[in-house]
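Morning run. Coffee first, then this:
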Amino acid sequence: MRTSISVRGFRGYGSLEAAFGPGAHLVWGPNAAGKTSLLEALVVCARGSSHRTVTDAELVRWDAPFARLATRREQPGEDPLELEVTLVRDGPAGGRKRIRVNGVPRRTAGLAGLMRVVIFAPEEMLLVAGPPALRRSALDALAGQRIPAYAADLAAYGRALAQRNALLRAIREERATPDQLPPWNARLVESGALVLDGRRRILEALVAPLAAAHAEIASDEGPLAVTYESNVVPAAGETSAGALARRLAETAAKEAWNGTTLVGPHRDDLAFRLDGREMATFASRGQQRTAILAFKLAELDLLTAQDGRPPLLLLDDVFSELDPARRSHLVRRIAGLPQAFVTTTTLDDLDPALRAIGEAWEVVPDAALGARLVGPSAG
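And here it is:
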């Protein structure tokens, strides 16, 4: 459970200090006031990166040279855990990042599982029918919190992919030759196979909680499943590494012509299937939203089952996207959690049962000094 957060020079915040107790925290204010940024700060502390952008420089306030975020977690029977993330801007698109856990430097991958979060944001309303990158990102975020080494494996794959693509472009432009590819093929295969196996493990673990969550909120709609749609499918007796190496060999000429890697986990996708049919092609908006809510609740249940400790639930202005029955179900789930954060433009938009159990915090925009949080213990 987060007990405090400190923010300096992050997004629209100049300075913020706040302490949070258990239960639901209702963060409200006008659009662009800083509600989403507060939740984003919690995500950055937990994961070392934002769920909204891959460019750290965007997170630093326009008039600040750096951003610093710190949060503290206290759990009964455990020593307090303090996380600090500092982002230094070096030009419009670049920057440096420093992460400390209880004062000790860590890499981003070293945060995996320390402070788990489940975030439900408006952009995820496109999870079923939107771009594949959105679904890959959702799966990778879950895998990174469930499998300790996954974040490091994914980062290694990203580095190998970038280097291999640069070499493929050079080969296409006749500045390099194909005989330089094997070392990068080997690195891509090694890390890519770990990513593929990790994703499949997570989806296998998600089968039961996803089916249960969907049946709980939409028992009349048939079973819900999420399948992994990969361009690297192992043959009988073949490992993921063997399948990826084979696919790279099969596409070698085409990749040299295109100057980019055409197969691998960066090209894979997920498919939501309702009663065996792919939802992206037939499901109504209501059915899609129900499936997405079930996915998030299953994610919450899967992470809780790992050690009995529920993750922090962050709901960014999603109540308006759900019908009354789904809202009531979500309120019941929130009431059973140690802590949750919910944003909204006005408290009147929230379910009365949620307002009754929640603690209200108002975000007041201030262009000159930065957004302010007005509540029981904000500074």
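The chain has a mean pLDDT of 93. Good start to the day.
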